[in-house]
Amino acid sequence: MHLFEIGNRADPDASPMHAHSWELRSRVLYGRVANLPVRTSAVRDREEGATHRIFEVFSGSDGVDEIRPTSLLVRSEPGPAHISAGGETYTLAAGEFHATALEGAEPAATLVHGTSIPGQLDLSLGPLDGRPRRTTRRLCDTAQTVRSVHTVLRRIDAQQRA
User: Fold this and answer.
1) Which CATH class is domain 2-137?
2) Which residue ranges make up each domain of the chain?
3) Taking the model in full, what pTM does it have?
4) Which domain of life does the UniProt lineage start with (predicted)?
């Protein structure tokens, strides 16, 4: 489950433009979510118009992500945003660069199913001169997970009664 709350900010050290190593199928439970595809084309150097470096992301079960720059430079440009509302399902292919964000002034929640694709890597787009770095994701314990699920169910119930 992915919760998009009003006022929640992404980790400033994490790139919002990323590509999963797995195929994603996501059902919007409530609210509106925007997916912005990012088209990339390989370039050799900055003079050819590189806008980003590709980084490999190695996620540990402890919530620590190692983010390592590759030698690959790309030129990227956003595609048209695709907005999905409550009750709709969207899919993203493994390796497809995108950014996902809350659309509008109401919170949103999605239920995500992923299918691993052998040989694919988790990637992100970062600055051309980016350095290796480490980030720590906040992992939910059982009590936090239960509270989150109850919050989602209450909101869905309220929408169905309205």
Assistant:
1) mainly beta
2) 2-137
3) 0.85
4) Bacteria
How far is the C-alpha of 36 from the C-alpha of 132, rounded, in Å?
Answer: 25
Q: What is the pLDDT of residues 28-47, one digit of tens each?
A: 999 999 999 999 999 987 77
- Which residues does residue 33 pair with via DSSP β-bridges, in sequence order? 84, 102
pLDDT tens per residue, range 95-136: 999 999 889 889 999 999 999 999 999 999 999 998 999 988
Please provide residue 90's backbone torsions phi and psi, each rounded to the nearest 5 degrees: -130, 160
To 10 degrees, the CA torsion angle through 32, 10, 98, 62?
-110
By 3-state DSSP, what share of the chain in percent is helix, strand and coil, each rounded to 5?
15, 50, 35
**Cα 161 to the center of its chain, rounded Å:** 31
